[in-house]
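Let us work through a complete example step by step.
Step 1: write down the sequence.
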Amino acid sequence: MSAPGFFGYVRVSTAKQGEGVSLIEQRDAILRYARRSGLEVVRWFEERETAAKRGRPLFNEMLALLRQGQAYGVVIHKIDRSARNLRDWADLGELIDRGVDVRFANESLDLGSRGGRLSADIQAVVAADYIRNLREESRKGIYGRLKQGLYPMPAPLGYLDRGGGKPKEPDPVTAPLVRRAFELYATGRYCLITLGREMTQLGLRTRTGRAVSRTSLSVILNNPFYFGLIQLRSSGETFPGIHAPLIPKSLFDRVQAVLTGKTNARVVRHDFLFRRLLTCAGCAHSLTGERQKGHVYYRCHTRACPPTSTREDLAENAVLAALRPLQFNERERAYLATCLTRWRKDWRDGKADAERALRLRLDHLQARIARLTDAFLDNVIDQRLFEERKKALLLERQDIEERLASPTPAGRELPDRIAEFFELAASAYVGYKTALPDEKRDLLRILTSNRRAKRNTLEITLSPPFQAVADRGSVTNGGPQRDRLRTLEGSSAARGKKRNWTHLIRDLGKMIAGMDLDWERLQEITRLGKDGKGGRVAA
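Step 2: predict the structure and record it as tokens.
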């Protein structure tokens, strides 16, 4: 037996409307109608969801209860509160056909008659057309903002909303922490779980004050918004943004490389100095550290390899022997400073030409983007191909703009970076001797490219730029010269040495310009700028 009474249904499209007077006005109108008609409202359903698409949970719950006969009918404020998509109106019409009493407080319609039902159907169609038009206009407004470089959605973590028509601004509190998250993950020493713990300790929180979850970190690290591009996840479309980037694209690319190639972090049970750093020359597998009789040994456990073992203290001596040639004496530093000064002048003369070439390339890209857009508007290419090509052109343009804005990773000119590189290389030997175990491991990863053991011998190979510095004493027209001033500047053999130093600086310029060197970590380990050790190379 059906229970007496009617349901009352009110709806607003946004939570902001629900906090205002809209729901109250709808309830009052329904209560006035119920009193005039002698009806009793036994239960209210208040919806704060858009009716532009199906899926309103309370509306669907109410329909299910009406099908079960839990009420005589329902009183709704207006037709457009229930029928802004035709599917929901069809569901409501099915209930009317079953005999459920559906009434509207603001419309005097007899849904039991043919004329009243036709009038209601027409109003429902008009309401559905209104919401379709409203959705289309909203979409145009959103895309208009996107084409202006504005992000019309809530600002991602690290940015602040400044109102409509204004770009997002970096949050002075969270922006440095988000940038730090990118920098830490790019080192490859963190997984998302350990990075989340580290960022929680540093103070990074969501807007609700909670710790940043692993999923949230993944969203942040994959969001190109942080280096200046706006990408819509729903459609994959990409737009150049006018907001200030938090990170350079090079750092974002480095993070993506770690994300796509990173394996699950392993638990470290023994904190040996050279763990996973030394490899066997025969099988290329990592040597395993073992503690026996008061010493740490690194051994290969591949049966097919000849017995390979090296003791930790002897391995450290081999590392120091490889780093020792990186040091400079006072005369070398003075001569190097002179060479750097000459090279700096030549480099600056060619810098303007390089910038002009980049600007021409940038103009060419702009023209290609314009032609691509015209081809899309003329229906020469479809939208999928248009978006793929546009994204590739925008990424290339972003690279060129970053190179024009900052020719080097830290914004300093290449001669400054080379001078700093010589300074860091000269400090590597002393820095390693005074470093902590974790710092020594990081220093080895930065400075060396090969650490292979063959039987009892350990071979240490420096990475190319540092190896070039270590080999600076060799010349093309004779053996190594003594490091005396007349040797560097006087004889014919010295002139060969002079050419060798000039070529060294030029070759290092090519290496450093394209290398991914962790400058900050290297500087931190070698203590440059903290205790004054290492000897600066002025230029």
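Step 3: interpret the result. The chain has a mean pLDDT of 78.
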